[in-house]
Amino acid sequence: ALDGNIVLLTEEGHLYRIKDQGQDQIPYVKWQTDPQEDCLSAGLAPRSGVVLDETEDRTFAWVAGKNSLVRFSLLDGSCSQVDLPAGFEPTSNLLLDKDGTVVLGVGGNVLGDDLYQEIRILKYSPELELLNPETPNLSESATSITGISQGTGGHWLLGTSNKGILVVHDESMTIQAGYFDEFTHVPPPIQGLGGQIFSSGLPHWIHVISIDGDLVWRRAFDELDAESGLAPSSPIIDDEGLIYFHLGNHIVSLDCNI
User: Fold this and answer.
1) Among 27-31, 156-160, 193-197, 227-231, whose mean pLDDT is lowest?
2) What is the pLDDT of residue 165?
3) Angle at 49 between CA 128 and CA 252, to 5 degrees
4) Rg (Cα) of the chain, in Å, rounded?
5) Cα(7)–Cα(30) distance, integer angstroms
6) What is the per-residue burial (b if ≥16 Cβ within 10 Å, else e) of 2-29?
7) Which of 41, 122, 186, 249 is buried most deeply by CB count within 10 Å?
8) Is 136's pLDDT higher than 70?
9) Which pLDDT belongs to residue 36?
10) Which are the contacts of 57, defined by CB distance < 8 A and separation ≥ 6?
11) Is 165 helix (H, G, I), strand (E, B) or coil?
12) What digits encode the pLDDT tens for the residues 182-238?
């Protein structure tokens, strides 16, 4: 957080705000979520992570619930929630834009592990109002949105469980392009300064595609990396053209200029 405190979401679905006491000092918990609160009755969804909204007017931490979106006050941990549309549950990370709108990918009518009959992108205002209730289904066959990021030119970049990468136009909420190969469970793709989209996925692939969905290049990690069974993380690209992924218990870097 901006005040130096740490906001932590655990695998068990508990949210903590921890005060950093500085070097050689033991941190202490300023507040933690109370599972008895009404907005936590169904629990939280750790896979979606937590995003912070800190401005002069807003001091919130946003977390996805099992079938809801939950807003916490960073001051005291009190919370409010809004239910997702009936039958839908969160499947992706959360995003926050500059005006405080929260964006997430959801799935409806679950068919199996990470497979849903419908997938949608939902937007919520800081006041917990659903801003796009008429947003369409983005897939005619079973899949899920496993990662979402904001691209340039009014596009959302989606990673999916079994359909690779999708480029979705924000205003029309229609798929503009996509790319699929032998990879699954794609975390949030990232768009570089040159407009190319970088992504990763199981079992051990890195892909770079154009905004039109054309393959620029791809690379497989070593087989040893694939044995961890963990999908590579969303990439980070530095100013020198190096791209970094977290995979299992180590970091992988590649030179994008080669």
Assistant:
1) 227-231
2) 92
3) 145
4) 19
5) 10
6) eeebebebeeebbbbbbbeeeeeeeeee
7) 186
8) yes
9) 61
10) none
11) strand
12) 778 888 998 887 888 988 877 667 788 899 999 888 877 655 444 555 566 777 777
Side chain identity at residue 158, one-letter code: L
The closest alpha carbon to 119, from 111, 128, 129, belongs to 111
**232's tokens:** 């590579």
Taking only the tens place, the pLDDT of each residue in 70-126 is 999 888 888 899 999 999 999 999 999 888 999 999 999 999 888 999 999 999 999
103-111 long-range contacts, CB within 8 A, separation 24+: 103/148, 103/150, 103/156, 104/48, 104/64, 104/69, 104/148, 105/144, 105/145, 105/146, 105/147, 105/148, 105/158, 106/145, 107/144, 107/145, 111/142
